[in-house]
Amino acid sequence: MRLRQEERNMSKTAQKPQHYDFKAIEAKWQQHWQKEKSYKVSENAEQKKYYLLEMFPYPSGRIHMGHVRNYSIGDVIARYKRMQGYNVLHPMGWDAFGLPAENAALKHGVHPAQWTYENISYMREQLKAMGLSYDWDREIATCHPEYYRWEQQVFLQLLEKGLVYRKKTTVNWCDDCATVLAREQVIDGCCWRCDQQVVPKNMYGWFLKITDYADELLEDLDQLNGWPEKVVTMQRNWIGKSQGLACDFPVEGDKEKIKIFTTRPDTIYGVTFMSLAVEHPLVDTLITGTEHEEPVRDFIKQTLLDKQRMAMDQEPEKHGVFTGKYCINPFNGDRVPIYVANFVLMEYGTGAVMAVPAHDQRDFEFARKYDLPIRPVVQPEEKLEGEQMDSAWEGDGVLADSANFNGLPSAEAKKAIIDHAEKKGFGQRHITYRLRDWGISRQRYWGAPIPVIHCDTCGAVPVPNEQLPVLLPGSQPPYGSSAPLHQQEDFYTVTCPQCGQDAQRETDTMDTFMESSWYFARYTSPRADAPLEKEAAQYWLAVDQYIGGVEHAILHLLYARFFTKLLRDLGYLGVDEPFTQLLTQGMVIKDGAKMSKSKGNVVDPHDLITQYGADTVRLFSLFAAPPERDLEWNAQGVEGSFRFLNRVYRLILANMDCFVASDEKKNNAVELGKLSQGDRQLHRKTHQTIQRVTESIETNFHFNTAISGVMELVNQVSAATGEGGKQPLDQTVLREALQTILFLLFPMVPHFCQELWQVTGHKKTLDHQQWPEYDTEAIKEDELTIVVQINGKVRSRLQVAADTDEEEIKQAALDDERIINFVDNKPVKKIIVVKGKLVNIVV
RNA sequence: GCCCGGAUGGCGGAACUGGUAGACGCAAGGGACUUAAAAUCCCUCGGUUCUUGUAACUGUGCGAGUUCGAUUCUCGCUCCGGGCACCA
Prior knowledge:
The protein is 37% helix and 19% strand. Among the domains are: 2-148 and 516-587, Rossmann fold (3-Layer(aba) Sandwich), CATH 3.40.50; 241-433, Alpha-Beta Complex (Isoleucyl-tRNA Synthetase, domain 2), CATH 3.90.740.10; 783-842, Roll (Ubiquitin-like (UB roll)). The chain is of the alpha+beta class and 843 residues long. The longest helix has 24 residues, at 677-700. The strands form eleven sheets. The chain has a four-stranded parallel β-sheet with strand order 2-1-26-27, covered by helices on one side. Strands 6-5-9-19 form a four-stranded antiparallel β-sheet. It is built from 26 helices and 34 strands. It binds one RNA strand of 88 nucleotides through helix 1, helix 8, strand 11, strand 15 and helix 11.
């Protein structure tokens, strides 16, 4: 392989170039686009807008294949929509806060800012080298004070509205990153970033009340028809709404009550014990000073240890211990023994579960283990007997042994039982979510400072607006400037804005997901002297098409939806949902595995662009697979795409005459009736290709089939103009075909097509051309192939004129020599004729 | 365990609403051009069988079913990928 390349390079210098000069062409047009600011846009009420956005990158140093794919897909859509006359907003920027910058600072002694901005400059050039049609005037970097100061302002507004609060809780702590993680950032018990095991830790932190929006976030999922079902489902499950009964079980001989939540109030007469989480606050008072104290404490200690040690993917065996106390089932007055159990979660519901072993599998296992009664109260068709059951019945049924509720079906019983509890005052209708409030405090340096000052007398005081932004220290990199903020005395030593006494600045920074939660809105007015300019936001939002990896299905996309609603309620924007249409693209893989340094299978886009040019790389990444699927990188396939472009290049140059010979204005003034057979065929293929490409893009962005369509057209033009010596083609038809090829390919390989467009004598750029439309008359075939089947098997094919009627086709099929042979005088039972397609003869 | 996807030639992938399976590309083989190579162009290319044909049979993960006809619809499996997971 290597040898072959060297050989080619040698011969290249010796003889005339064997490929088009992509280097010169791409540089030329990139400069042109930059100089002309070809893709700069502004609000224009006259024109329909289209906001296209790809997820912005983290400036890690260089772009990778995932970026190439993501941005190639986006650019095709942007350019396509532009040709259709839309005012297209297509911005780019940098998700620039984050841990790698801090690590680099420690390792190389550069300030994170310097490291980040250098990476940005380099990667910006790489993106430009791909010929992506961004409005670079709108570029933003989230680490820039002009970005994060507005985030700080929004934070303070949310604080004022009571949507931000501080609390001490058990947080997920990653030792390696030395920071707190949100629940969503913990994957299988490990840090999403470094894979280190997460440990619980008690500390203060700032939280955003996303749970206040849980219902809306859930309900508005129904609006998201343009999102993959999969992502919607993932979000729905993540929010995890359940409805049921919240109910108090008084502790026997005590004034304490145990609060429980259940989605199955219909089973409440089947309660035979109560399970508490080991962390439940009541446990202490229940056991202190009793004979059960010691065993229970031992159990709790052991369970907490196990929890930490246990691999998260394994379900530990159910254990528990009796507390010696009883509570009372308020419905029937039963004495219910209280246990502490290892499978009850403090984080969900109330940390206490009414146990109904007959109708809950976990309770069932627990009951069998500790010999507790099993009392079925919801009877399916086949009657259950407690002693004989070998698993819980979790389905619906009819109530039994449930006092006044006997005979009611589950669904009705649920309502009736809740009503009863509400009337009697020991319980009420209740909704619980799996979703937790979003902890946004990070103990990091390279993030947006949380704009709060802690004062001994005034408490947590917001930084006054006129003092924003709270800047990160060390815009020049002095020694040690990359240390977290709590190690930087001159940063945190301040006076209280309210009372003027000595106070301390908050040293936590915000989770970087904060920045990516609203950047799409900031793009609409990136230099505004406010978080957003309302008119601009009004005009451009929502994002019409958003493109990115499915790995952000929960984290980023949920937070962005949440922020949209926050900004709406603060009066900045007028939409409920940020992204109308979502495309989640697959990964780029090599040899069946994700590209990674450790696997040594990384392909660097930079090398490829140097070797083949950006257009080839773009073309291949669009051609090799439909966008939503994983893309297997194949070096030989890239070669194939390169060959194709060269073929088109030669084809156009070889047929330059038709551009001169035919009048541009008369372009499509082709009279179908007057065309020769060959001209008619090419004309038809041209229009069929327009239809195919347009529909591929419109329905599902399947550029792979769009490209193969154009390839077919190229093949047909080659065959018609080649040395095969076909009759000379009508110059207008030929010109139309070649022009169509350039139009259809332009969004995918823009430099290439633009160059040829100019070479063939056009002054206006392709950016300003209309996307072609197909002529419904021209695409009609005048001859069709009809398949003739006998008992569903293809036995012959007929060529017939398109307007042949069914009777004639049927007769022709029966008269066909091969068919006569096959039918062999057997009685014909039935003949099915499908118009324009086939005849099936059943014998 | 539960919920989503997916499985088609040597490979990436096509196939509208149930109607010609394998478009397009890659790889492979053969040929033309060339002193030679590169580049380019042409031909062949799912499998099996033979009587080498406009041939027969077979073939879309496996097994049933519906239908004149199933890659496509239904049911039951297998494998692969992704998500969630003691959620009361």
